[in-house]
Every structure is written in C-alpha cells, then in structure tokens.
Amino acid sequence: MKRILLGTLAAAVLSTFTFMPASAQSDQKPSREERMQHWAADREMILHSRLAGMKAGLGLTADQDKLWNPLEAAIMDAFKSHMETMQKMREGGERMSPTDRMDFMASRMAQGAAHLKAISEAAKPFYASLDAVQKHNFEVLARSVMMSGRGSVEWVENGGDAGGMWEPEGWGGRPE
C-alpha cells in the first residue's frame, strides 16, 4: 500500500514540475500577429459554417448542387483575397500619406467590385435553377453569408493619425 501511495505521490510531484513551464507560457499574451491569425481563422470558420448552413437550408437537388460549387468558390475566392489584402496591409507597417491611402482604398474597392461581379455571375445560373421557396430562402440566407465578418466586430484604430493600424476591438495591443 505504501508503495502505491509513494508512487502516486512521486508521479504527482513529477507531473507538477513537468507541466509548470507550459502553464507559465499560457500566462504570456499572444503577439498581435498571432491574434490576427486567430481572428482570420475564426472568420473563415464562420464563413464556411454559414455557407454549409445555406446549402443545407436550401435543400438542393443533385443538379442544383453542381451549380452551387462555382458560387461557393467565388465567395471563398473573394474572402481569401480580402484576407490576403488585410495581411499585406498589416505587414506593411509603414504610415501612408493621405494620397497613398486614397489610392490603396480605390484599388481595394475596385478589387471588391470585381469579386462581387464574379459572385454575381456564379450566382445567376444557380439562382435560376431554384424553385420559388428556395429563392425566398436564398434571399434570407444570402444576407447572413454576405455579412459574414461584417458588423459582428468593432474595429478600433491603434496607433494614431492617418497611418494608424486597425484591429478588432478587444484583441489587445491598444493603448489604454
């Protein structure tokens, strides 16, 4: 009996010292880049789940399912492009002049318009294949998908004047 108790006690003491560095590491705050990577992964997961929910809610036939894939691909392409643009903007780190910022915003808007046009073109044959009930459901569900990541988070400026950085509120790094 003493051997079992001593063995258990030794294992408990050993595991405490073994796992102590891991718990000490968990006290450290993740870097801004790590927080933003987690945020981006969360947005992607939300978009995937909303697309899956939309597809399930529409109750597609086999023929409609074939038309769904190009629409989903266009939405994901737009999302990935947006995330890559955000990543490049974060990595830049240098302050932009007001004219550079306007040029950057104009190119982002043009890119967004091109992606929206691609989504629209992919949606046309898909939407035409839906019956009246599915079309109604599409309108309701599409709002949720297209608003994925918009409005669900407040963005705060971190860094001051026109060249400051933006990040989701509550992710730290903001001077208090």
Task: Tell me what the structure shows.
This protein is mainly alpha-helical and 176 residues long. It has one domain. It contains 5 helices and 2 strands, in the order H-H-H-H-H-E-E. It has helices spanning 2-26, 32-58, 62-92, 98-128, 132-146, and strands at residues 155-158, 165-168. It has a two-stranded antiparallel ribbon with strand order 1-2. Helix 2 runs antiparallel to helix 5. It is flat, with a radius of gyration of 24 Å. Mean pLDDT is 76; it is low at 13-20 and 151-155.
Please specify the SSE layout and strand pairing.
Elements: H1 2-26, H2 32-58, H3 62-92, H4 98-128, H5 132-146, E1 155-158, E2 165-168
Antiparallel strand pairs: 1-2
Helix pairs in contact: 2-3, 2-5, 3-4
- Structural class of the helices, strands and pairings? mainly alpha
Mean pLDDT: 76
- β-strand amount: under 5%
Question: How many individual domains?
Answer: 1
Shape: flat
Topology as a string of helices (H) and strands (E): HHHHHEE
Radius of gyration: 24 Å
Give helix % range.
over 70%
Could you give the order of strands across the largest sheet? 1-2
Low-confidence stretches: 13-20, 151-155
Number of helices: 5
Tally of DSSP β-strands: 2
Give the biggest sheet.
2 strands, antiparallel
